[in-house]
Amino acid sequence: MKVNNNSADFCDAVVIGAGVAGLYQLHRLRELGLNVRGIEAASGVGGTWYWNRYPGARYDSQAEIYQYWFSKELYEEWKPSERFPSQPESERWLNYVADKLDLRKDIQFNTRIDAAHWDEATGRWKIRTSQNDQIDAQFLIACTGMLSAPLEEVFEGQSSFKGKICHTSRWPKEDVGIKGKRVAVIGTGATGIQVIQTIAPEVGALKVFVRTPQYTLPMRNPKYSEEEWGAWTKQFDYLKERVRNTFAGFDYDFEGRSWYKDTPEQRQRTLEALYNDGSLALWLSSYPEMFTDELVSEEVSEFVRGKMRERLNHDPDLCDLLIPADYGFGIRRVPLDTGYLETYLRPNVQTINCQKTPISRIVPEGVQTEDGKVHEVDVIILATGFDAGSGALTRIDIRGKEGRALKEEWSQEIRTAMGLQVHGYPNLFTTGAPLAPSAALCNMTTCLQQQVGWIADIIQFARDQHKSVVEPTKEFQDAWVEHHDQVTNQTLFPRVDGWYMGTNVPGKPRRLLSYCGGVNDYNRRCAELAEKKYPGFAFA
Known about the structure:
alpha/beta, FAD/NAD(P)-binding domain, eight-stranded mixed sheet, five-stranded parallel sheet, 16% strand, globular
């Protein structure tokens, strides 16, 4: 798509991002008859599944629910090869969707939004891209992703390293060349786990720098035949409704189960069955008290620790380093793995305890720790995480009414109106932003589609009312933030540092990024707003 660089190009809406949310948002707004332009930094569609092409990348929502629900035809025609498809297949799936819906013609690739300023005189957004395009749009919809702003420049001296250094979310398309090499992996979150278990058999020596141990569950990932997928397509209507009405947007839920109503024998059977399912069911459908009750949290955590000890052959040093002891299961992101813990039993894998000897800097030869030791390697893989939820937006110069800057406001306190809009920034809509379940605690396709649909509906409502500007009131936003914090403070989440609370980024305000009241509760609240004609939102 070519944009006129000499004068502002006018359109009804600009959608930032061409991932799961961006593609669907573009489709929905086009259906409303709007002139829409998609802006995408990558050379192709896919969002997360374009950028995260590191070894072992795959999602941990089952293929049958990591889906678009607006088209049964899309669901039936695309046939996943396994329960948890890998990155290449996921990228192909989103390319299939883009082609099927003929979306590419309205997407400008290899382009970033550098700035977006609200023009109070015209009631429109003035947008500047990295290609120096000037775009004038009524609506700006940020489908920028919740984990899309990587923390790349983490250590002093990175540029001095004479080998190759890669961040997992900016993994090059060409072969990195790790076979037989000495490789360091820094970070053992969900991404680091996938990388470590995948590359260990092919590298010469693998050094894993471990700071924060993670609870992890073994993935069960059977292949799907066409016949098996056909059985899932028959459940399309059921699954479509089911995922919208569960706590985390999956097809499994807590089902009213209570720890204190079950006998010890019933609890054990429940935990064993959900553990053996090989999905996130143990986390998101066992006992909800694990999020609020320290006693239950410790009991469930010890169950998982026991499973992890078995997988580590009860090696005392590995168990001390790799099994969490100071926070509960499910209070941080829970990864699924395929032989991750067993990887540490390999002779070519070495661990470095970064709690005892933190990394001090990167030197030309490798990674130097605070004890002065230099760990010489040929390749450094940074699985160092993201500025989650807010980072993709604060890296754009977004300015609202009276020149207020979103980056500056969010550097003091992160506030949104249900993660859908921000007071003071009219006609700016967001998906995957802070204070909504989509920021972390949700099967992403469930939550992103719900937000996309809500945004399309309120825009259509405004147009039907002959209004051109939509903005949440300060009172509505304040009430949502207060409710969000009240729900958060009833849980154990605030007691643990990490990216859920924003503490992995120095100086970032501390607040749970994701609404933890449940996807079902959030969806109900959004539906009620629409039914009541959007109280708390000002139209002009």
